[in-house]
Design goal:
139 residues, mainly beta, two-stranded antiparallel sheet
Length: 139
């Protein structure tokens, strides 16, 4: 499956977006603040701009699989080969502070927040748990 995350709303705290799967709207997303990082940048530039735990991952195209998360103790989508980041997942939460660089999903948005996140995460994992490698493009 091809996932596309379109970032739409930028604040000093968070980045809100829309997640599409194979061209169809699936849910809203919440990330840390977008600091203008691009996957095409070299690692030193990314590390210089990134602030640990409060910076959205670079825009770009990545592979994605569902695997067991040691931290969360459940199967979650994992985004691979993100320069300057490790262990990037798509998971539930409500606020940017729940992210640490990961992408949070939800059915409704608020100010710097998403809601109905648990059911959205469950539906996403179910869709992606077919053993295939998927891609996600962040724009």
């Amino acid at each position: 499956m091809k996932l596309e995350l379109q970032r739409t709303t930028y604040t000093d705290i968070s980045t809100i977006g829309k997640l599409f799967i194979d061209g169809k709207f699936f849910c809203y997303t919440l990330e840390d603040k977008d600091r203008g990082l691009l996957d095409s940048m070299n690692l030193l530039t990314i590390k210089a701009r990134k602030i640990f735990g409060v910076t959205a991952i670079p825009k770009g195209k990545y592979s994605l699989t569902v695997s067991m998360s040691n931290r969360f103790k459940r199967f979650l989508p994992e985004i691979h080969n993100v320069k300057g980041y490790e262990g990037i997942r798509i998971h539930r939460g409500n606020y940017a502070g729940d992210s640490l660089g990961c992408i949070i999903v939800g059915a409704r948005i608020g100010v710097d927040a998403v809601f109905e996140s648990t059911t959205t995460e469950t539906a996403l994992v179910r869709l992606l748990s077919n053993g295939e490698n998927h891609t996600i493009e962040i724009k």
